[in-house]
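User: Can you predict the 3D structure for this chain?
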Amino acid sequence: GALGLFILLTWIELGFDVTSSGTTTAILGFGMLFLAIICAILFEKRSFCRYLCPVGRISGIYALFSPLELRAKSATVCADCSSKDCLMGNSQHRGCPMFLNPATLRENTYCTLCTECVRTCPSQNISLAVRPFATDLFAKNRFRMDEAVLIVTLLALTSFHGITMTPYWTRVNQLIRVETGLEATVIFTLLMGMILFGQVALFWLGSRWSSRLAPNGLSVSKIFKAFSYCVLPIALFYHLAHNSMHFFMEAQELIPLLSDPFGLGWNLFGTAGNSYRELLTIEIVSWIQVLLILSGHLFGVRIADRISRRLVADPNKAMLMLAPLIFVMILYSALSIFLIASPMEMRTGF
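Assistant: Here is the predicted structure, written as structure tokens:
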């Protein structure tokens, strides 16, 4: 549900350029709010956040990389607890709104760090801890097809966002429109479908190739499920690289707005109407972007190596099986670097 809604919102945002219209953006926002309210009325706890909200699902899957975790301190204390207030709630607090049992929580995917379990635990057995980045991904041993499809599609959508901002996108749209006479919306929809399907199909083909090299007959679907988590850092770090450009080149524009946040002619801090230089030069930002993308790729390779050794006992055979997927990951990272190196235009589907 969340993945379908995310694809739909992407199609609306980029295909109809709704971000340039405050009214349309507000309508979409109220639509999401209405859907959340309906789910809250019809279902228990935060069903919308867990199953339908694209922001919740995407931030949740990225949280596998997070350096923070909310976990039980002692499994013995949890085993001896009969009330399970952290899950069921009590007279003061409602318990976990995401249907999670903190005693058995091993991953961050659905945890929103609301800390309800901390407040309800009678033994103060739950704490917020700092850990190394990507701990959940390095320890991953249970793989789900719905998460796998979400991750690979998320990677495809991140690059699709970048593609629509390049001049090549505009040229291709115009060429197809001239040659075929199709409406702009139809062309956008077809190109979006081709790009998303193509990137997911590429990873499936890599998984199929790896399956043929696997020594113990691992199925294509199992390899696809397991190794999809390796491309999560590639998607995450492309997001960081892309938005670092916006931050370092545009963040200074917030300074004048601080003095007049509502456009009422105020000058609270004496900065209204002033102009400021970019935080960093374009050359430095470009190097930061490349380093971020390379970091994401290295994280992905390390995670892939860890997973391959869990699936195949012989390290040499594990490396052989992994080779096609490493090649696919290189293609993904190369596309990321190509996109950040390309000139960017206003996002539009037409």
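The two ends are 28 Å apart (CA to CA). The longest helix spans residues 184-213.
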